[in-house]
Amino acid sequence: MPKIDSPKLFNLIKSLTPTERRYFKMWVDPNNEKNSKYILLFDAIEAQTDFDDAALKKLIYPEKTPESRKYSELKNYLYNEILKALQHFDEKTSVEFRIKNMLLNVKVLFKRSLFHECKEQLQKIKKLALEYEDYLALLEVLRWEKELAYTMTDIALLNRQLESFRKNELEYLGEQTTITELRNLFFKLLVELRKDVTRSKEHLVQLKKIADNNLINHPANTVSTTAHLFRLRFLSAFEKFYETSKTLLKEVAAHPHFLKESVSEYISVLNNHIVSCGQLEKYAEVRTYLQKLKSVQPITKDDALKIHRQYYLAKFRLCISSGEFEEGIEALKSHESESLHFEKFYFEKNTFYFHYFLIYFGVNDYEKALHYLNEWLNMPRNIERQDLQSLARVLNLIIHFEMKNDILLESLLRSTQRFLRKRSVYQFEKLMVQFIKDSRKMFLKDEIKKALQNLQSELKRLLMLPEEAQLIKMFDFESWLESKLTGKPFKEIVREKFNRKSTPPS
User: Fold this and answer.
1) Residue of 368, 377, 387 whose CA lies nearest to 429
2) How far is CA 316 from CA 288, 321, 328, 356, 364, in A?
3) What's this model's pTM, rounded to 2 decimal places?
């Protein structure tokens, strides 16, 4: 039996829900003395905050040093017993597990020549697989039906059904192929969207290439709900985002049996609709759907993580857009408290750091805003959101400008200019860097005011250019400039602008 690394056992036990932990305890029968060491090890790992193998050995074998082989066997057995228990646990809630086990039952029955019982099992599997669009399972059912007819030398059945078998096989293969290709196309789109949120001309060309696909524009005659939902998700990225995402949300909710099996897609669709509402400034709907997202019952730990991450990212966006930065601070505290239930690295993302930065900037806590901006800047460069790297450097200059760190600004300006020279630069980035550079030589208020007014005028011009506007809107530079010119707090300017947008015309 291969050795199980102790951290793997630790991670497996820590991933269990309270219900799964109780189920495992019943599975191994704690009253059986033979299982006492396994339960002791399980409880000890469950109680640990950080993995400590030496402490575990000492607890399990308090009077002597165990043989490494003996301890490894104990861990192996426990690890495998947990997996077996989880398989049985999932069997009760997962249709996928039920279908797989029923197919195994067919194999067991076939081996013992119980062919009638095989057929009964296959009919049950077929009914479930059709309902849940498990085309791979349906292909396996067809294989067994042909195998049974051949083994039983049922030539009459083969004669009657062979053409039907062939047609069904091609249909199921076609549906599965369509779903697979649409899924791959959707993932390709997702990667491209994450690489560049500003929609530069080059990026839009690349997106158009992905969109010009016959599976999207000239769909085959498929009956699969799964394929239909993938198409809607794909289209929502390009046209009528709000209307398409709302339709998609209704379509997903109209198939409750799918939601019992997996809520992952529903969580993503709900989140996308929240984003679409935000883009159209339908903020009352944002709040309504945020509550719906928060109330979704997760099936897996990954579901719980997605709900948490997407709820708080949307909540932060709402607080930032509305200027309710104090509400954002309260949400951030709740987020930090709840995130203790998950691995920390899930939240060490530039998306979260950017929102933390904006919220602390909004309450004038520049020290904390700078801390999270530096966390963002110090992240390893990867494919995700490459376009925001230069924006982070521009914001870094603004923070130090606000903090009046004149000495540090000189070296930051040099490093920022070096960075920008290596890439395609937006006009707005050049303007901001030049303003910060020039401002260091200005000592009169009128001079600074005139420079701010010129920057404001240029900003309005650039906002008319779609490729520039996307980047400018990542941070509310308009409100920041207005606050510098009027002397009013940044958060008040943001709030007033939000209220003007949200108030319907009389």
Assistant:
1) 387
2) 15, 9, 6, 8, 16
3) 0.73
